[in-house]
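Q: Got a minute? One more chain.
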Amino acid sequence: MSPRPERTPHAHPGTTPAPENTRGPGRRAVLGAALGAGVLGAGVLGATGSGGASAAQPNPAGRPADARRGAAETKAAFLGTFGAGIVSCTYDTATGALTQTGSFTEVTDPTFLALGPSGDVLYAIDGAGPEGAVRAFGVGEDGALTPLGSARSTGGAGVTHLSVHPGGGHLLSANYEAGSVAVHPLGDDGAPGERTALVQHEGSGPDPRQEGPHAHQVVTDPEGAWVFAVDLGTDRVYTYKLDTGSGALEPVSEAASEPGAGPRHLVFHPTEPYAYVANELDSTVTAYAYDAATGKLTPGESWPTLPDGEDPGDRNYPAEVVVSADGKYLYLSNRGHESVAWFAVEDGGAKLAIAGTVPCGGSWPRHISLSPSGGVLFSGNEKGNNVGVFTVDKESGEPTASGDPFATASTGCVLPT
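A: Always. Here it is, folded:
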């Protein structure tokens, strides 16, 4: 299947409540621990596979890997693609080098992925029908994926994002075309059940792409107290309260961006009361003050996503935004400029200062992600059919290209474990 073209210019594209999931450790916790430790079985760990230029390299000196690379591990990563299903990989935690180990092609355009809290259930969006759907897969010790339950409708067209509530009991999804967000309960095995909530956004904006609501992302704060939906079409970030008993979403508040900004994705600072929103249509990133007691976001200062004097080309469309685990640096992908920008986080999280950009290694960096250690950054380059791989200097925050990009299908999401 050929990759589905994006709309112009781009298709679509957690006070902490009691934990929802009170299930015992069992298989999910055991496998999650294995994934977290990089223990995926000898067959995967020893693979060199069809990884292209970024595959694991031989050791001509015959030295142990830990002596050469500072006790680097090999861990699992999953790529969500347009047209090629879910691609399973391993990556070197020191260099980021990716090696493909398998694929699951019986899912249509799984361009966004998320892991459950235990790490052994993978969730994907599925664009096979007129309405979007969500799917769940068990992750085996060898990285193989096994479907869990059936696909569940998200109740609207153009599903583009999903996330798992930190309690582990609910799956959240965003329908871009329909401008709505949905909730599905998760069973004991992690499989989604029938939808328990569907909230429709209303409104529009001044840009031609804002003719109606376009929900682009749905996430929680780090503690899972509130749910946030970012809507490109209405220039709004909506706050909801999730009833973890019934699975209903209750509207709480709305935060308006600058008209025509087109907010796309949001990330919370790990320790300070701020969130940062990448604005797709005006090429800015905005800091929002966050009140954890009420869930209210208040927009503050915005900054261009390119340094002064850098040419954005015909036009630049920011996509993904992530923050380092220590909260010192923010990273953002620029489609059009074809780069990853990094910012220093200043003034207790209230301000950003752009430090520079680095070429993404391909074209149209739809998604970027940091490895759990923070030492590796990946750029999923949708139009480049590859993944840019970078090591990250923990002191300066600077990403540096690590080998050649990993050749693969049109990529919408890179999920390292």
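A: The chain is about 5% helix and 45% strand.
Q: Perfect, thanks.
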